[in-house]
Design brief:
The structure holds 2 protein chains of 2 kinds.
Chain A: H1 11-19, H2 23-45, H3 48-65, H4 76-101, H5 113-118, H6 122-131, H7 135-146, H8 151-158, H9 162-181, H10 184-187
Helix pairs in contact in A: 1-2, 2-3, 2-4, 3-4, 4-8, 7-9, 8-9
Chain B: H1 2-7, H2 14-29, H3 43-50, H4 54-73, E1 77-78, E2 85-89, E3 92-96, H5 100-108
Antiparallel strand pairs in B: 1-2, 2-3
Classes of the chains: A mainly alpha, B mainly alpha.
């Protein structure tokens, strides 16, 4: 089946086609989801190469689970977000352990807030503020406010109740505001 | 700021997309493959197969144990026909046989 012909086919149907040997379906799934996965991983890890590794690993897990995929039980996109969130959490924990042992503070090498302001890069400042949040708050805030997922989907991704997600995102946003409030002037937000 | 972050999306590299599609083809080619343990095809497996596998090893082990036991017991004589042998230790001599039923049959005959 041609790739273009699959543009309007749903993810569940593509999973069935792929598990029946249709590589065009795999191609369609890959092009549909990989950009979001890379972006999600990059937001959490702030490392383009690692983000691509995570995206590849997540897609590999999707290929492997395809024959057992149960239609209508979970959305492919939600399942992938969940895998990426878990993989990123693992890597962040490992990275934190390594940094404690041997690596100098990453802040030293990162551009200062002033440099970010000079290059008018508020996004970078936001990412640096997000880095200061606890892991789960960072994931919840990123999924809610950057990826714009609804709370029930975030709850599914993070394995939490919707109420817990609401609380997590509210606390995350409050903490983010507190971190950024000291830098508002530097960022030209006042 | 969130809006700016939302727009800050780098497209995945061609290398990544190729790797993902290669993974998809590989996963289709070996759907039930368990990649964890490759089959043992090294020198040990080859040598084992060369002498007849684990059955030969077990037969060899039994023979070796029997040989060691015979050496330890040190019988004076061994009858190859009925498997009997006699042990001499100090002042006493003990006759042993593996096949007492055969021995009885021979006596009756």
């Amino acid at each position: 089946m041609a790739f273009d012909a699959l543009q309007d086919v749903g993810d569940d149907a593509l999973m069935v086609l792929y598990s029946n040997g249709d590589l065009a379906a795999a191609r369609s799934l890959a092009f549909r989801h990989t950009p979001r996965l890379v972006a999600q991983a990059n937001r959490l890890l702030r490392d383009a190469a690692e983000a691509e590794d995570v995206a590849q690993e997540a897609m590999l897990r999707l290929w492997k689970i395809a024959p057992e995929w149960r239609q209508g039980e979970a959305k492919v996109s939600t399942w992938l977000y969940r895998v990426v969130a878990n993989l990123c959490t693992d890597r962040l924990r490992k990275r934190r352990g390594t940094q404690l042992d041997s690596i100098a503070e990453p802040e030293d090498d990162a551009p200062s807030v002033e440099a970010a302001m000079q290059s008018d890069d508020r996004t970078r400042a936001l990412y640096r503020a997000l880095d200061e949040l606890p892991e789960r708050q960072r994931i919840a805030v990123t999924l809610r406010h950057i990826d714009e997922l609804p709370n029930p989907e975030i709850a599914e991704v993070m394995g939490l109740s919707v109420e817990a997600v609401e609380s997590l995102t509210a606390r995350g946003k409050r903490n983010l505001a507190a971190i950024l409030s000291g830098r508002k002037q530097e960022l030209g937000l006042e | 700021m969130f809006e700016a972050a939302r727009d800050d999306v780098q497209p995945p590299s061609d290398r990544l997309m190729q790797a993902i599609l290669r993974d998809a083809a590989d996963a289709l080619a070996a759907p039930d493959a368990v990649p964890a343990r490759p089959a043992a095809t090294g020198w040990f497996r080859q040598a084992l197969n060369g002498i007849g596998g684990w059955q030969s090893i077990s037969a060899l082990a039994v023979s070796a144990c029997f040989g060691i036991w015979i050496g330890y017991a040190a019988p004076d004589t061994a009858n190859l026909f009925d498997g009997s042998f006699s042990l001499t230790g100090g002042a006493s001599t003990v006759d042993n046989t593996f096949y007492s039923d055969i021995d009885d049959l021979l006596m009756e005959g």
